[in-house]
């Protein structure tokens, strides 16, 4: 363990795992409670379009992913609010659109030789100090949002109609939640990549839901599980020379199935 902590890139990787665990716990709990996993998946895969556009114009890939994801989030929020009966079709179309745009712009990029696999499947060992600052800033913003508007997010999650009658601007908070998903996806790209981000976003909250009775405790327990998965995955990848992101999700998935088997009555109920 001391050998691992002495390496600068492992220190950054562990810090990234902790920071991303917090943002995923907050957003993921809201995603699970509101049953918005498919929306989060659409944003995650659609973010690839922003990466492709950024490469084409020689911009920072994560900046492109951030702006494009927020744009997609606003479009998705607007369309799903108007007609929830077609939500699957809308998300599927945006999912495909984002991926297609990303691939086309990358094809058009002259002399392109960047490693796209790091954006698709993560590259946690390559996390920079700038990435950590971005993750930390997202953490601060999300914690502040939950601290200030916890009651509104709780009302939106458990009874949106009643919350609306009580004067809560449910439309505004729905937009905020979808935008939080977009920023969470971008913050997590470096750790597990666009393909695996949904697993880290939903598995810890789903397990936490077994033990938590309130949204706040669900977020806290989810963060704890996520940190355990990230640290364990990093240890496994370091010892066996495996991909960090995939190792994290493998451990999370195995734990998910164990909890599903052990607490199947609670999950089903």
Can you walk me through this structure?
The chain has 269 residues and is an all-alpha fold. It has helices spanning 2-5, 8-33, 37-46, 48-56, 61-82, 87-108, 117-121, 129-158, 160-165, 170-211, 215-240, 244-262, 264-268.
**Backbone shape:** globular
Q: How can the largest sheet be summarized?
A: none
The span between the termini is 41 Å
N-to-C SSE series?
A: HHHHHHHHHHHHH
Outline:
The chain is an all-alpha fold and 269 residues long.
What layout of secondary structure does this protein have?
Blueprint: H1 2-5, H2 8-33, H3 37-46, H4 48-56, H5 61-82, H6 87-108, H7 117-121, H8 129-158, H9 160-165, H10 170-211, H11 215-240, H12 244-262, H13 264-268
Helix pairs in contact: 2-8, 2-10, 2-11, 3-5, 3-6, 3-10, 4-5, 4-6, 5-6, 5-10, 8-10, 10-11, 10-12, 11-12
Short descriptors:
mainly alpha; globular
């Amino acid at each position: 363990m001391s050998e691992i902590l002495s390496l600068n890139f492992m220190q950054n990787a562990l810090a990234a795992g902790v920071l991303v665990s917090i943002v995923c716990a907050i957003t993921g709990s809201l995603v699970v409670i509101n049953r918005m996993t498919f929306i989060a998946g659409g944003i995650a895969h659609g973010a690839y379009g922003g990466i492709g556009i950024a490469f084409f114009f020689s911009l920072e890939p994560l900046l492109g992913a951030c702006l494009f994801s927020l744009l997609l989030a606003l479009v998705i929020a607007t369309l799903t609010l108007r007609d929830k009966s077609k939500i699957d079709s809308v998300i599927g179309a945006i999912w495909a659109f984002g991926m297609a745009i990303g691939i086309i712009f990358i094809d058009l990029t002259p002399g392109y030789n960047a490693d796209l696999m790091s954006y698709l499947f993560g590259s946690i060992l390559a996390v920079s100090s700038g990435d950590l600052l971005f993750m930390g800033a997202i953490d601060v913003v999300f914690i502040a949002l939950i601290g200030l508007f916890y009651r509104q997010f709780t009302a939106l999650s458990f009874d949106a109609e009643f919350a609306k009658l009580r004067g809560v601007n449910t439309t505004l908070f729905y937009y905020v939640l979808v935008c939080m998903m977009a920023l969470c996806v971008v913050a997590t790209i470096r750790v597990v990549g666009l393909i695996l981000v949904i697993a880290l976003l939903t598995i810890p909250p789903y397990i936490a839901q077994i033990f938590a009775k309130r949204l706040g405790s669900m977020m806290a327990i989810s963060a704890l599980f996520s940190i355990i998965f990230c640290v364990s995955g990093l240890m496994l990848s370091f010892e066996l020379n495996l991909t960090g992101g995939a190792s994290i999700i493998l451990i999370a998935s195995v734990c998910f199935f164990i909890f599903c088997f052990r607490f199947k009555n609670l999950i089903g109920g």
